[in-house]
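Office hours follow-up: a student asked to see two folded examples consecutively, so here they are.
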Amino acid sequence: MYKIMIIEDDDAIAKAMKDHLCKWDYDVFNVSDFKNITEQVIRYNPHLVLLDIMLPFFNGFYWCSEIRKISKVPIMFISSASDNMNIVMAMNMGGDDFITKPFDLNVLTAKVGALIRRTYSFHGQVNIIEHKGVVLNLSDTSMTYQNKKIDLTKNEYKIMQILMENIGKAVFREEIMQRLWESDDFIDDNTLTVNITRLRRKLDEAGLEDFIKTKKGIGYIIE
């Protein structure tokens, strides 16, 4: 079941869209907290976002650019501001489609279906792992914290992926080395230690002190 997030502050319009899309077997979530939209995108991990332009606190253009920092999820703008400038702005900010209010709900559903087919018939779901504000995007191998990108090497990223796939569980050093062996780089025990040390330094500099803990005699854990 595809998940759709609706970011629309008009309760009547948001409810009408949700009720109609649910009839077509979509899993629909209506945003109610318009101060923390990025966090909700991370938590809900939608397949498609329907985004109004005129919103409380920050407009849809702002939130589109913020979402684009962490996700490639398709975004369809929904707005009564349908002049060419707004449509061009929406596309330039990272939007994938635009529908003008007022709209027929059947037309909305058709456009939603078309955009989902175009996106997922070829690319599959955008996968994100989030823990304590750290966002690991498996679709573009990026990591962000507090909306700031942390540059990692290929091996550092793989180590983060292994540990974040096992939150709360200690991962053996041998298991990490085995996963890293799948790359073209030679990984032994000393090389792993060097990679962990450099990774921890980058995390510390980003404000993530002690994010990766050592389990003596076992390996490493993110709690």
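And the second, which I mentioned at the end of office hours:
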Amino acid sequence: MKNKNIAVPAALASMICVQGGASLAKRLFPALGAIGTSTLRIGLSAIILFFINRPKLGSFNKKQWLYCSIYGLGIAAMNLIFYMAIQRIPLGLGVTIEFVGPLFLALVLSRKVLDLLWALLACTGILLIVPWGTGEVDLLGVFLAFLAGVFWAVYIVMGGKVSKVMDSKDAVSTGMLIAALFIIPFAIWDGQLLKITPLLFLQGLGVAILSSALPFSLDMIALKQLPAKTFSILTSLQPAFAALSGLLFLQENLSFLQWISIACVVMASVGTTLFNRRYEM
């Protein structure tokens, strides 16, 4: 009971940080682009976490290195592709579409009929939020958001696995380091980081702390205590936080139907969380 009471607030705090950081990151796109911003975020996060947690890399066994590597690749791909998506579509829309990854994971791992009903309600919300018939939807942006969702599911599964075989601080620090090493070649190819200024660097540092260093550490606390299925559907609150963040900080307005669709996703999250608390705590 006590551990799960800590895990759920940790997951919620992580989501607030991520979406606030995403809004700040999107302001950097005109100057650094999606690849440059993502690289700055992950690279600075890796440095911060490495020096704070000082993981003992030489003590890891083969299984720990394997899990950390897949976890790190999931982080890098999830973030890079998602930033490329929200460069083309609104933040709230991007996060809601991206949630197809955790939703599919929840469906696969479901063992109760009620879980399936909550997941289907979330699926309805995701289908409603995309403006399919308006001609205004950026199909490449939508595809990238779906693809980011696949790696979001990888991140959830591997985060849960790696947190069971090694210390959480070591896992997240090493995972971020591997993510940084993976994404740096893309930044070199892109070349946008050459345009960085001291002000942009400070803004990137804020993004790194809000979007990676702090939330990934909080996620480790949650993933260590919650089943992957529960964590997956709990994260359906992400679209609501994203839409509010986009509205407040980026002036990105959504239609009434799109807000209804987000409400469907949120209701699915609340319903499944209450159900799991009743039967699992």
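Two things to take away from it. Residues 277-281 have pLDDT under 50 and may be disordered. The CA atoms of residues 35 and 186 lie 7 Å apart.
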